[in-house]
Design a protein that fits this description.
Layout (H helix, E strand, L loop, with lengths): L1 H14 L3 H26 L3 E8 L2 E9 L5 E3 L4 E4 L3 H14 L8 H11 L4 H7 L1 E7 L3 E10 L2 E4 L5 E4 L3 H9 L2
Antiparallel strand pairs: 1-2, 1-5, 2-3, 2-4, 5-6, 6-7, 6-8
Length: about 180
């Protein structure tokens, strides 16, 4: 009976635009959900990102930085390493991550320098030939996202996306090498 009475009060408060209902129920609920959403978005914001292009045992790695409108742009320095050397891959990935969002100005010309360093004619050749994997860092996580190339372009394969705690760096690199 008490539940029904309270529900009836809430319903009448809603219909009468009762200040008490909004002040003590609606506003706290909105604040609660906004805080949860803000916390999740802050933890998922990508701070640094590199791209790994893998073909057989060869890996080509380049850092990416955000430009003035928030797009990730590839830029040198570029790294080429054998996927058979786990320790070497770990070091190169750490080194490449340091260059991501390092304050270096990234623009369309810097992206062309990446192609030149890899001795490739176009991004399409790179995407069609190599397995593309994004390695991203947030404040608390490592996100590894493989990409699928179609006629319309490259798209993230969210089914194969892996998320690790930042402390599991070596394990994340080992999983990356399995792609």
């Amino acid at each position: 009976k008490r539940k029904r009475k309270n529900m009836a009060k809430r319903e009448t408060a809603k219909t009468n635009n009762d200040e008490f209902y909004y002040k003590n129920f609606v506003i706290p609920c909105v604040i609660f959900f906004c805080r949860i959403f803000n916390y999740k978005m802050r933890n998922m914001r990508i701070d640094k990102q590199i791209t790994i292009c893998k073909l057989g045992t060869e890996m080509k790695i380049y850092p990416e930085s955000k430009n003035e409108i928030g797009l990730w742009i590839a830029h040198p320095p570029c790294f080429v390493i054998s996927a058979n050397d786990l320790y070497g891959v770990e070091n190169i990935v750490k080194n490449a991550i340091r260059y991501s969002n390092s304050g270096e100005f990234a623009n369309e010309d810097s992206a062309k320098l990446v192609l030149r360093e890899f001795r490739l004619k176009s991004w399409n050749v790179l995407y069609k030939t190599y397995k593309i994997i994004s390695f991203s860092l947030t404040s608390e996580q490592i996100i590894i996202t493989p990409y699928i190339y179609t006629r319309r372009g490259g798209f993230p394969d969210n089914k194969k996306k892996l998320i690790f705690d930042k402390s599991d760096y070596s394990f994340a690199i080992r999983e990356l090498l399995k792609y």
